[in-house]
Request: fold
Amino acid sequence: MATRRQRFLRNKTRKMRRGKKNKTGKKWTTAIDAASLTLKKTGSIRAARESLKKQALRNARRLFGSVGV
Reply:
């Protein structure tokens, strides 16, 4: 017979699993989208260029993993 703690944890995990059925994968932000959004917010081309580089690096890390330079 399961203890009270085990029953509680089992029920909790079942409830958590139920809500995740409809969710799809996380949407990726392209580097160009990030740059255009920054340009709209700040109006600075330098900030937009920097945000483009940062987002491109993040996306590359997602694809290929973190690689030391």
In short: DSSP finds three helices and no strands in the chain.
